Amino acid sequence: EVQLLESGGGLVQPGGSLRLSCAASGFTFSNYWMAWVRQAPGKGPEYVASIKKDGIEKFYVDSVKGRFTISRDNAKKSLYLQMNSLRAEDAAIYYCASWYYSNGWYLNYWGQGTLVSVSS
Amino acid sequence: QTAVTQEPSFSVSPGGTVTLSCGLSSDSVSTTHNPSWYQQTPGQAPRTLIYNANIRSSGVPDRFSGSIFGNKAALTITGAQPDDESDYYCLLNMGSGIWVFGGGTKVTVL
To answer: With an 8 Å Cβ cutoff, is B37 touching chain A?
Structure first.
């Protein structure tokens, strides 16, 4: 059974930092591009970042560039999101998801999310 | 940045048919945008329904279908069930590694 289990969320003050983790199991993690997607309360999902299978190529939405860093450890089957200089608008549930290619890319597996709150 | 547009809400009768759309504010949606559709109920993670515009994900009932209709991507629910009451989001590939979700459509079955 495929599982993506996020952790590391919590309450942080504006300007603070958090590191999210996502532990993968049930599939060959190293064969998949991975992504972070967030969803603010009452809003739709927002794509945040993606990382290639080997961890070399990375993409970010403009609003987090220079503040967030996506990374992975294929030996540990884990995905990470280092979030610095956090703002109130970064508060959301953060989901880890895997990309799959079958005549086109899509997000096929999703975790249950970890909640990030940003407040003083 | 180009916005991905969806109807805010739709209401459908049980057994009825509803078509949701996914458009771009300044372009036409095509297969190059890799349209995919996701269903989400409150408190749950999104669930993949459709990818590559018209391919159903594993385990998705065949009452869900996807297409490109005119200049938009479309998700049709044929024979709506009470369990289909959810939020539906489309996701488009904008190129250069950037993907954008639509604002979502809330479907009510009553």
So the answer is: no
CB atoms A95 and B89 under 8 Å: no
Q: What is the C-alpha separation between A101 and B48, in angstroms, rounded?
A: 13
For testing contact with chain B, the best of A47, A64, A96 (most B CBs within 10 A): A47
The per-residue pLDDT string of chain A (120 residues; one tens digit each, 9 = 90 and over) reads 999 999 999 999 999 999 999 999 999 999 999 999 999 999 999 999 999 999 999 999 999 999 999 999 999 999 999 999 999 999 999 999 999 998 889 999 999 999 999 999
The C-alpha atoms of residue A60 and residue A64 are separated, in whole angstroms, by 7
Contact predicate B81/B32, CB 8 Å? no
Residues in A lying within 8 Å of B, measured between beta carbons: 37, 44-47, 50, 57, 59, 61-62, 95, 100, 102-108, 110-113
Choose among A115, A65, A60: nearest CA to A85.
A65
Taking the Cβ of residue B5 and every Cβ of chain A, the question of whether any pair is shorter than 8 Å is answered with: no
